[in-house]
Each structure stands twice: as C-alpha cells, then as structure tokens.
Amino acid sequence: MQSPSRGRRLDAVPGPFTPRTPRVVAARRLQRRRDRDATGRFLAEGPQAVREALARAGTVTELFGTPVALDRYADLAAAAARADVAVSEVTDEALAALAETVAPQGLVAVCRHLDVPLDRALAARPKLVAVLAEIRDPGNAGTVLRTADAAGAGAVVFAGEAVDPYNGKCVRASAGSLFHVDVVRAADPRDVLVALRAAGLTVLATTGYGDSDLDDLADAGRLAAPTAWLFGSEAHGLPEELTAAADARVRVPLHGRAESLNLAAAAAVCLYASARALR
C-alpha cells in the first residue's frame, strides 16, 4: 500500500524506478570518485546511515527505497518527506544497482558532501582530533572515523593521499559517524601539523618504534592536554617527515607475544587513552 508520507517523486515514471530510470542512473554514478567530486554528492546505504544523515539537516537530497523497505522504515521515509526530500520507490534490481553490499537493506540516500575547511574545524576548539595521513584503505579509515567519534573527537582529518571519506566502504565502516564529526580533507599533511599546533594541540605520532610509551604518557598526565593523533597506513605507517615533526612519537605497549596491532585497534587504544585523560 502506498504511504502518503513517502513524499514526492522527481520523475513521472509509472511504478517503481528501475535501473534505467534517469534518477537511478545519475545516483549510481556516485559510486565513482570523479562523479562524487564533480557533483559534491555521495551515497549512504542502509537504515542506520540514512537515519544519521537525515538527522543532519540539509544533508540528504534524495532517498531511494524498495516498497518493502519504505514500509519497514516508514519513520525514515516520513522524516525525509517532512524535510522536503524526494522519496522514490525503486525495484529490487534498481536498489541492487545503487547498493555496494551483497545483501542491501533496501534504502540508499543521496547526500551532500560534509567536509569543512581545517580552520573552521579548529575554530570550534576541539580537544581531540584524529589525522588520517595517507591512509588509503576505506575500511580502516571508516573504522578509525567511527572510533574517533565514539571517543569524543571533534574532527577527523583526511590528509595527503588519504582515501576519499565518501567512498562507499568508508561510509559504511563509519556506521553513521561520518555525519557526527567535522570531516576535513587537506592536501598537505605538513600544513595540517602547522595548523594543529597553532590551535594549541599537542601532536602525537603513532609508530611501533616510538620512543614514548603510551602508558608512560598517560601516567605522566601528558594526555590531558588537547591532542591530535597522527595515524598512518597499516602497510607503511606514517611518512617519516610527519613522524619527525610530531611533538612525540608514541608506541602502544605490547604485553603479550603479538608482533603488532592493526591500525583500527591501535587507533582505538590511543584515542580512548586521550578520552579518559581529557575527562
């Protein structure tokens, strides 16, 4: 049964939109970075991401859903309609074309880019910032973004040749956190370090070979100041010039026989150590 709360449709097409409907074709192009960059739009898939996107006013521009999903998540369809967002029924085939998961949950939203300039993010005087320097794996980047949000970080910076934060896998891995914190994209990580210091943040670089032990820093009270953590790629770590430029090079202590922690685990340990100290 058609619900009046589902809102309006942009194309006068009888029945649900198909993979060939122009609106679906246009949205599907957003799976490619060049089209996301050109349009300033990206896709958010699944009810959790859609819910968080709708909670950030002005973010969602269109919501696609199968009839079953629009009935199951009628509250989201109604919220979109109230925000004057186009809500369009699509076939299962069209939804599968828009989604990038094996078992999609029936909803895909077209969203506006959210990133802000670094100076604007720092003007809010965040006490905790995560910098993803040259991290190219979207799953790792999205997980660190989610962890930073959970730890209370005010901003997450994608610096240098880091992955696009609007990559579908990164958006899904963030589990909605992309819509909660200030996201910054910065071309030069060195400029980021200069700005962080000017804003009064201590810059800590994570490295397995650091000369400072995380537990020692915590015990000495050195994590109680506003802090920016630098995280590098899991394969190559931080660029040497960034590690050298940080205020301290920090290693996470390993008390067992494991050789190392993966990026997401190390980031969680560091960010929560700061979160505890700051509180």
TrEMBL record:
Kindly list the GO CC terms recorded for this protein.
cytoplasm
Give any single GO term for biological process. RNA processing
- Cite the RNA 2-O ribose methyltransferase substrate binding domain residue spans from the record: 43-117
What keywords does the record list, in alphabetical order?
Methyltransferase, Transferase
Transmembrane regions: none
Among the Pfam families in the record, one is: MRM3-like_sub_bind
Q: What is this protein called?
A: RNA methyltransferase, TrmH family
Query: Sorted alphabetically, which InterPro entries does this protein's record hold?
Result: Alpha/beta_knot_MTases, MRM3-like_sub_bind, Ribosomal_eL30-like_sf, rRNA_Methyltransferase, SpoU_MeTrfase, SpoU_subst-bd, tRNA_m1G_MTases_N
Coiled-coil segments on the chain, per record: none
Is Methyltransferase given among the entry's keywords? yes
Similarity comment text for this entry: Belongs to the class IV-like SAM-binding methyltransferase superfamily. RNA methyltransferase TrmH family.
Q: Does the keyword Methyltransferase apply?
A: yes
Cite the SUPFAM superfamilies for this sequence. Answer: alpha/beta knot (SSF75217), L30e-like (SSF55315)
| Highest taxon, organism lineage | Bacteria
